[in-house]
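Weekly sync notes, structure subgroup
Attendees: PM, AL, DS (notes)

Item 1: joint prediction request from the bench team. They want all two components modeled as one assembly rather than separately. Inputs as received:
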Amino acid sequence: MKSILRQIKIKNQYLISLCSVSIVSLLCLFTRDYLDYKIAAYILLVVVSLLAMFLDIFPVLLSAFLSALILNFLFIKPYYTFHISNAEDTLLFVLFFVIAFLNGVLTHKIRKTEKMLQIKQVRSNTMKLYNALLDSLSHELRTPISAIMGAIDTIQSQNVTISEENKLQLYSEIEKASLRLNHQVENLLNMSRLESGVVEPKMDWCDINELFYNVLDNLKEDLKFHKVKVSTDENLPLFKLDYGLMEQIIYNLVFNASQYTPKGAKIELSAVYNPDVDFDYNSEKLESCVITVSDDGLGFPEEEIDQVFDKFYRLHNSKTGGTGLGLSIVKGFVEAQNGMVTLENKEDGGSVFTLSFPALVMNPKEISNE
Amino acid sequence: MSNPVEILIVDDEVQIRKLLEIALDSNGYKTFFAVNAKEGLSLTANHQPDLIILDLGLPDEDGQQVLKRLREWYKKPIIILTVKNTEEEIVKALDNGANDYLTKPFRTQELLARIRTALRNTNENAIEPIIEFGDISIDFTSRIVKQKEEILKLTTTEYNLLSILVKNEGRVLTHQYLLKEVWGNSYSDQTQYLRVFVAQLRKKIEEDSNHPKFIITESGVGYRFNTG
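Output from the run, pasted for the record:
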C-alpha cells in the first residue's frame, strides 16, 4: 500500500491532497450544527497527519494550508468569511496552522530517515554477501592453485631428488587440484547464468534412469567409498525436462552427499511417476515426476535446514571446501523447470532431498513396438 | 605409415598450442600451427593437413564460420576444441561438418583417442561387411546380428539404429541426425523415440545396460558408439 502510494506521480499527489481535505471538510460541514468546530479542527489535523505518512512534503503542506483556510471559512464564526471575530478563535486558527505544518514536516523527515536506514541496511547486507563470496572464493580457488604451484615447484627443484613414487603422487595432486578448480568454475558460471536470468530450459524427453547412471559414472571417483543404490520403477515413463539442467542438479546433490557423508555411507537415488497424473495431461500443475536423493549420513542441523539453499550459505560446523553455491544452483535450476525442492532429515538418520516437477509424461510402451 | 600424419592446430592460445605440440609430437604426429582464422585457412589450402584441430574462439573470425568455409572444400577430419560448452554450440558445430568436439578443459588421452578415431574413419572408405564388437557381430549383407553365435532378435528400427551407430563408430551423432536417418525427416524433434529405442537396444547388446560400454550418451547432443 505504502509503496503503491509512493509511486504515485507528484501531480496526482496534489490532487489526492486537495480531494481528501475537501471531502472530509464537506462531511464535517453536515455536523457543524451539532458539534463544536474544534472537533472539525482535530479531524482535519488527523487528515493532514495521514497524508503526511504517504505523500511528499509539498502536497502535505498544501493540505495543511488548505485545511486551515477551510477551517476559517466554514467552521469559525462568522461563517463564509476569512474574518475571525474573537481572539480565542484567532489563536486557535494560528495554532492549527502551525501544528498542521509541523506535523507534515516532521512526518516527512521521519520517513526520509527511515528510507536512508533501509538503503544502508541493504547496502550492508550486500557487503556481507560480497565478503562471504570473496572469502569462500579466494579460499576455494587459491587452495587448488597453491597445490598446483607447490607440486610443480617441488618437481622442478634442482637440488633435491624426488623418488619416482613421490613424483607420481605430486602429479596426481596436480590433477586433483585442477579438477577441483574446474568444478568451482563450473559452479560460478552456473550461478552467474542464474543471476543474469538467462537460464531458459530446453525441455526434451528424458530417460531418468539413464540420467542417474550417467551422473554416477561422472562421479565414480568421488563415490569410491560409498554404497550407491538406484531405485527406479521398471516402467518409469519419459519426462519432459531439461537434460542438461537435470544433470547438474543430480550431480550437485550426489557430489554433496559424497563430500559430506562418512566413508561407507549409503546414497540412494529414486524416481517415481505420480500415477494420479494422466499420461496425456497438459497444462495442469501436477507433480508428475518425483525424484529423491537421500543418504544415511549425519543429516542437517534442524535449525539450518531453511537456509541451506541460500546463496553462499555454509553450515556452521561444515568442513573446509565448498563455496555454498551447489545447493542454491540446485534450487535455481529446479525452479527454472517449474519444480520444487525440499530438504528433510530422516528419522533414522541422514537426509533426503525431494525434487518434484510438473513435467509432461510419455509412456514408452506406446512407441516401443515398432 | 611412411609419412607421419600431419595435423594443423588452429588456436590463438600459446599455452594450448605448446601443450598440443608436445602431446601430439610425442605420439608420432607432425604438427603445425595457425594463430587465427586467416592463417588457418591459408595453411589448410597450402599444406592439405590430414586433420585439423580447430578452436571455435578465434580472434579474427567466428569459429563456426571458419568451419563452414573449410568444409566447402576440405574433406578430411576436423575436430573442434571449444570453451563454449553449450549444447547449441556443439550441435551447430557438428551440423556445420565437424567430425568431433572436445570442450576445454580436455584430457590429452581423450583427444588422442578422438584423433585416432577420426583418422580411422577416413581411412576405411568401404565399411566391412561384418563388424564385431564385444560378443556381438553384425552382418550388414544379411542384416543378421549375432550374440555369442546366437541370433539376436532386433526389430527393424532397432537394427537400423544400431547399424547407423556402428557404421559411424567413435563419432558423435546428434539426436536430429539419428532421428532423420532412422525414422525420417518429420521425426527430427521426436526425441522420445530415440530415448526409448536406445534404452531397448542397450538392454539387448550391453552387458549392463545401466553402465553402457558401446552406446555412450553425449549429454544434450546425441550418442556415440564405442567398440569398448
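Discussion: The two ends of chain A are 62 Å apart (CA to CA).
Action: AL to compare against the crosslinking data before next sync.
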